[in-house]
Known about the structure:
Number of helices: 16
CATH architecture: Up-down Bundle
Radius of gyration: 21 Å
CATH superfamily: MFS general substrate transporter like domains
Mean pLDDT: 84
Distance between the termini: 50 Å
Subcellular location: Membrane
Transmembrane segments: 27-45, 57-76, 82-105, 117-139, 151-173, 217-238, 258-277, 284-304, 310-330, 342-367, 373-396
InterPro entries: MFS (IPR011701), MFS_dom (IPR020846), MFS_trans_sf (IPR036259)
Low-confidence stretches: 200-209, 407-416
Helix content: over 70%
Shape: globular
Membrane topology: Multi-pass membrane protein
Number of strands: 0
Keywords: Membrane, Transmembrane, Transmembrane helix, Transport
Amino acid sequence: MLAWVGRSNVAFAKLQMVVDLQFSETVYGLGAxxxxxxxxxxxxxxxxxxxxxxxxxxxxxxxFAWGLTSVAMTFVNNAPTFYLLRFLLGVFEAGFYPGxxxxxxxxxxxxxxxxxFSIFHSGSLFSTxxxxxxxGFVLEHMNGMAGFEGWRWMFFAQAIxxxxxxxVAFMLLPDLPRxxxxxxxxxQTLVEDDxxxxxxxxxxxxxxxxxxxxxxxxxxxxxxxFCLLAATAALFFFSPTILREAGFGGFREIGRAVAGxxxxxxxxxxxxxxxxGSAQRRRLFCALASVFTAVSLSGLVFVWHSSTAxxxxxxxxxxxxxxxxxxLFWQMAVGFLSGKSLMVGVPLISSVANVAGFxxxxxxxxxxxxxxxxxxxxxxIACVQALGVVxxxxxxxxxxxxxxxxxxxxxxxxxx
Length: 416
């Protein structure tokens, strides 16, 4: 939750910051997107560090670093500083999400992993609840306190918990179930046996021996994830602005509306993932979640200037769709990249696809400056999301068929 607060609270700060610092929509969009430039470049190296030093040290260490970077956002005074800190924030957060994907893979098996990961990913949606409720209060009541603008207080107040929690995680987080102090020796053995059994039944030993960059599955999955993240960036970085233009009033009203839409979106995320969490359903339900997101993005263009209720409903639908889509995608991708390719494949897909996070806010901001409206930008991202549905239904199906043929050949081949 705090990771997504650090990357997304700039969307709420924008309501004051762009006026105080005289930033254009293009400057804001570029700064918001530069987070993902750092994210793309450092995702794979950080995850390799996790393999070497363990999840506890790396996840806690990068959380501490991005917490301090978020604190530094308090003192932004010009565009170059804004760009630099957003880039560094992406550098330090780069290994967190793929690192947790791998971390969960070492703890939970099968449908249990899908359910628990959906709860974990709901933290990204509840981050917007945190930003909305606390940000609305700070912008309205702390603006001018001690000579600082409200948006500066917001960055500071929302960053300090990350620094504290990073220290707590370093003290408490075990690398593997075997080191968990809250599990008895018998419970640790049960967890490890369950993971081994799942690996055997899912044929995890049948890994693709080709170099990772020549594996079509990597690029098909990267394309699908790119489309998912393009929609996520559009919703997260522009939802407060959409709600203001829809007529939700002051900062506190906008904050409550963002929070409410995200709570409903998080609940929808868990429901969709609970229904579609089995290995046989993940791809189809991931595509269905993407359809919900595409409907949300395109529908918002037609209602946000005319209906506050419809705007709120479509935002909630979009948050549910992006949350479920990302959760189901990673559980599906882990199955396709088992074995030797898993450790590098997960951060590689994350890094390639997160280019969407850089392109999307910059594109939407540029289109807004050029046309005076967000409509064209949102329609373009809705089309990208629709393309993602096609990739999930047909491109990923190609991986499934190829994997099935490979497994069938391996079963029929005589033992050497």
